[in-house]
Amino acid sequence: MKICAIIAEYNPLHNGHLNHINSVKKISDAIVIIMSGHIMQRGSLAIYDKWSRAQAALNCGADLIIELPTAFSCSSAERFAHSAIYLIKELQYINMLNFGSESGNIDQLNYLANICQKIDNTQAIKQYLKKGYNYPKARQLAIGPNAELLSFPNNTLGIEYIKACLNLNCKISVATTKRHPNDESNNIVSSSYIRTHMNQLHKYVPKTILNLYKYPSIFPSDLLFYKLRNMTIEDFYNLPDVTEGLEHRLYKASKNATNLDEFFELVKTKRYTMSRLRRIAYYALLNMQKTNLPKYPQYARVLGFNQTGQEILSQLKKATNILVTPNFKIIAKNFPYSSSLDSKATDLFMFCQKNKKPCGLDYIKKPIIIS
Fold it and tell me: What CATH number did the domain enclosing 152 receive?
């Protein structure tokens, strides 16, 4: 049985994603989605809750939705990719991966992934880091003319998936589907474009799932900024991604800025990407600490499935050594710290609704089941 994984955020799922799912269905027997929960990779709150997004994916042709834990969903591209591939490998029953990329050429991406593999954390990159460049830019400069593909975010993430497969000895078939630029004439645009044009949502998402997109989140700007203003230098130091004395810069900015945007402007340099700084703000709000973060995902929380997905699920449970379950109470009992981050992220999302919802929904929400 050909079971293909897609690693996604679906923030929100749109017509381009539907095209991707449909193309993967032609070459596989089933699709498993590894999907972020309520905090996104580049440091933002999901626009819609994870259960609505899971149902959207199932309605569009996916068979099984598994949540990528918050400890990994909000992280660098390398950690995000590494953890998702680790989950795929541990689930053992998945034998394919297909990701969208601007390139659409798996040979090009494999070639560049191997170059990145050889030079990552070498002196070739460190010389540019010393000049104040952030890691992604330093890597591009170290590679030279061949690094043009790394200027595109989905290429970069795809290369990290390939590297993770190499590092973890994950022997699945990896392919890519070309992502086309925004094409408003065919109602295909990026998720980021949709999030800034919510009044046009109906044009860019499949009509069959439009009714699921009812309650968008509200950006918690003041909440994030209040948390940052009340932190000590030691508090900043303990956050993931805070290195090289960045805690002093963060602390100074938190005392001098008058709003979140100003805080980011005061901290930002060419050494620190905005995505990294936004992630740090969410780490602070969720009380994440670098010393407590797990190295790998410890469980696979099931968000939803259809009949085919249920059959796959029964096979996964037999084959894997990690906990696979939709029951969050069992996850929380076995993995209290990592699961607490998932619960905090959900509580934050529900607080950032026009009509706020109570805490603890992870414990009572049942998986989405499509018969």
Answer: 3.40.50.620
